């Protein structure tokens, strides 16, 4: 039995945690940037609880916790530089990447990620996945990150599809909420990884 319902006209995939196991890369980049900037240790378990959030959402939480502002641009730039140096630790999530390969050329497909275009494109390119997709939508393209539906609605628009005709593959609570708000069906990829 296929995971993709017969009436599906297009597929939209999240990147991090869905197509790509990028957590070690993000963790290294962010922890180094935060520790250098804040001059204090950042526990690994703190980082694991904030997956699926945009860079600015993470920094909002940090500023709230500290009770003060931080050098957002400096931290983001340092984190991204660190991540790009860690591309070698990336691994595809094969069970999901294989679905994209299976439907490449059969259905229009997009990536919609709360990550930056710079990092998302580098990850997909590094793993040879970028060529599978007709559109890549990132936080750089929309006003509101997931859990807002903006990213998924833009992806459907770029694929020239109605939102209800799209199926989303997601791993995060924020992403699944965004898909529902966009009027799209979704698959929680965590159920495929068992």
Describe the structure in your own words.
GO terms for molecular function: sugar-phosphatase activity. InterPro entries: HAD-like_sf (IPR036412), HAD-like_SPP (IPR051806), HAD-SF_hydro_IA (IPR006439), HAD_2 (IPR041492), HAD_sf (IPR023214), PGP-like_dom2 (IPR023198). This is Phosphatase/phosphohexomutase. The chain has 194 residues and is of the alpha/beta class. It folds into 2 domains: 10-21 and 90-191, HAD superfamily/HAD-like (Rossmann fold), CATH 3.40.50.1000; 23-88, DNA polymerase, domain 1 (Orthogonal Bundle), CATH 1.10.150. The chain contains 8 helices and 7 strands, in the order ββααααβαβαβαβαβ. The chain has helices at 23-38, 44-48, 55-66, 72-84, 94-103, 117-126, 150-158, 173-181; strands spanning 10-13, 20-21, 91-92, 109-112, 135-137, 166-170, 185-188. The chain has a 5-stranded parallel beta sheet, with helices on both faces.
């Amino acid at each position: 039995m296929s995971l993709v319902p017969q009436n599906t006209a297009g597929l939209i995939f999240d990147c991090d945690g869905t197509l790509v196991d990028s957590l070690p890369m993000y963790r290294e980049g962010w922890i180094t940037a935060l520790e250098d900037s804040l001059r204090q240790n950042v526990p690994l378990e703190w980082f694991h609880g904030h997956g699926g959030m945009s860079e600015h959402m993470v920094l909002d939480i940090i500023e709230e916790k500290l009770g003060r502002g931080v050098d957002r641009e400096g931290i983001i730039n340092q984190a991204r530089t660190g991540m790009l140096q860690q591309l070698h630790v990336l691994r595809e999530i094969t069970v999901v990447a294989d679905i994209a390969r299976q439907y490449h050329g059969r259905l229009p497909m997009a990536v919609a990620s709360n990550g930056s275009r710079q990092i998302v494109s580098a990850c997909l390119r590094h793993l040879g996945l970028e060529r599978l997709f007709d559109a890549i939508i990132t936080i750089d393209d929309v006003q509101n990150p997931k859990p807002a539906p903006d990213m998924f609605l833009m992806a459907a628009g770029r694929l020239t599809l109605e939102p209800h005709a799209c199926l989303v593959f997601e791993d995060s609570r924020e992403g699944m909420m965004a898909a529902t708000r966009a009027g799209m069906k979704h698959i929680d990829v965590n159920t495929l990884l068992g």
